[in-house]
Amino acid sequence: MTGMSESFPRLHARTRRFTLGVPRGFTIAPGGDRVVFLRTKGGCDPVTCLWEFDVASGKERLIADPRALAVDEDDLPAEERARRERSREQAGGIVGYSTDTAVTTAAFALSGGLYVADLKTKRIRRLKTAGPVIDPRVSPTGEHVGYVTGGALHVQDLEDEVDHVLARPESPEVTYGLAEFIAAEEMNRMRGYWWSPAGDAVLAERADDSPVDKWHIADPANPSRPATEQRYPAAGTPNTGVELFVLALDGSRVPVSFEDEYLVTASWDAHGLAIVTMPRDQRSIRLLKVDPATGGSTVVREDTDPAWVDIVPGVPGHLSDGTLVWAANVDGGHRLIIGDEPVTPATLQVREVLDVDGDAVLFRAGGDPTEIALWAYKDGRITLVSPAESGVYSGHTAGGTLVVTGQTLDSEGPVTRVLHHGKPRGHIASHAERHGLDLRVSLIRAGARDLATAVLFPSGHVPGSVRLPVLMDPYGGPHAQRVLAASGAYLTSQWFADQGFAVVVADGRGTPGRGPEFERAVLHDLATPPLEDQVDALQGAAARFPDDLDLSRVGIRGWSFGGFLAALAVLRRPDVFHAAIAGAPVTDWRLYDTCYTERYLGRPEEGHYESSSLFADAEKLDRPLLLIHGLADDNVVAAHTLRLSSALLAAGRPHNVLPLSGVTHMTPQEVVAENLLLLQVDFLKKALG
């Protein structure tokens, strides 16, 4: 354990936001007797190991430790670095693995090497490969392992170690078996190939980047290095061309027919091969059944929405008799659908389907937007399976074993419980560091819309004793919530509060958890509703704590969409906001990607981009504004900040820009992450007096 003498910003950076040492990536053996998982050995240790928990004894054992395998992680393939950036992976070592259906064989990549572990004998071997390996996946039968190298999809026989190339790229712009940028960044699909249940074929994505515009991410701090060339599908421009092929181990190749631009996901189980697709406008989503022999596809289900359809992770699935497990927006709620019937009430918002085990479905859902509970559906009934205490829960189930991870406002970090047929079988330990903060969080409903809002005070603050300067700390956009009944959501906010601020965190219109109508309020306008709701939440918090909040000194900080919202706040509402810190802000939506931007604003020619961008407001700036941007950011590129800075300069408006050399959309470097927090506090204290 680290001594408490270490500063919170340093510890926050070193522990990767207190995620190191937390168990994750669970796979339960079909008999329910074993749980395989990932975890680092300590709260400051970034090297992830592979472990196994024995359900009967409650004991765990180490399966694979990258240090024992003498692997150097400085040598990651570029595609793997990109994959980790898309998945916001904070750690190193074994950050992903796959197993066969029986969970007796596991495969993982380390620094481009392919490793296979026998989970019975604990024997680990490194296989010879044609090049550095991405995304190895064991076949369901455990006889083969697939992997991608150099854009080619390979399959290796695990017995004789003979390597076959299933598909070779026809040009440098083509890859087989990898998810394209948009799938990984915006559709939560990190994979590009799927094994058949019999292990005799794979469904593989062929991605052709050649239609996509070329961008160049330079490293100005190192002028001797050439810029990184990247294909970036900006709003209104061409996407990667995606095709699908059934590639059999006998060498045959069958193209799969589908019309839509986006491949959302695929699934190949005992009930057949299915794909989910969306057209470019994202107003419909189609589930197609595919005949692997001919590649022909037929529509099984189609859902439409005049604004956009939502992608719910974990579907499609099937009950043991083949009945479809699906999720869709029906009668004003995100609902679980079994066959054709919604089985959850419209007031319970379904977030994700986690597992289908026989005739039972495990899913995450919440009635209150600050809570995400774990529910099970079976035989026409739904039951709550996570603890009754409000919090944020997830889990997995197989063979009568249930793994429940959860965090509440009172828990120091995530807790992982294992149950077998409802009886507790112990915990999978977390080695996460203690944050050492005294959390002072009040969850309230603020404003006319009852916005979920968190108000944080310094740990020593006596209510009513002094009016504190206020710091709004939002994300405020689609897909992400900040106001949750989980302690981990507020660590940085509490640290800012302890520097002498009342911190207000609010989830306005556009954020998830309150149902489709609330989310769709940002259609064609990503600026007005989110900003109005930050103002409403601030005023609602001040009404609740009139003697503690000083509304004459209000700052706002945010990253990504939150950075956009922070800059927007001082530009459009300087009467309310007196200083802003905008980290990696989207300043011009034409510079952001197709799938995300067009979902909310349509195509650029439809005319909804100007009112949601910041440039037209540049001349209005008369408050202190600090812009922060990682120059290596390949998601929200640094051009966003640099162009806004140019517009501000042209309007004669003073502002500050902090460029972060070598930093991507995440800021993992310890010293950078620590000093970034300290610099923000310094800026706010000076700006707000």
UniProtKB/TrEMBL annotation:
Q: Which SUPFAM superfamilies match?
A: alpha/beta-Hydrolases, DPP6 N-terminal domain-like
> For the Peptidase S9 prolyl oligopeptidase catalytic domain, which residue ranges apply?
492-689
InterPro entries (UniProt xref): AB_hydrolase_fold, Peptidase_S9_cat, Peptidase_S9B_N, Serine_Prot_S9B/DPPIV
Q: Which Pfam families match?
A: DPPIV_N, Peptidase_S9
What's the domain of life for this entry? Bacteria
Occurrences of domain Dipeptidylpeptidase IV N-terminal (ranges) = 110-375
**Which GO biological-process labels does this protein carry?**
proteolysis
Q: Name one GO molecular function term.
A: dipeptidyl-peptidase activity
Its recorded name reads Dipeptidyl-peptidase-4
Q: Which organism is it from?
A: Streptosporangium canum
Source lineage: Bacteria, Bacillati, Actinomycetota, Actinomycetes, Streptosporangiales
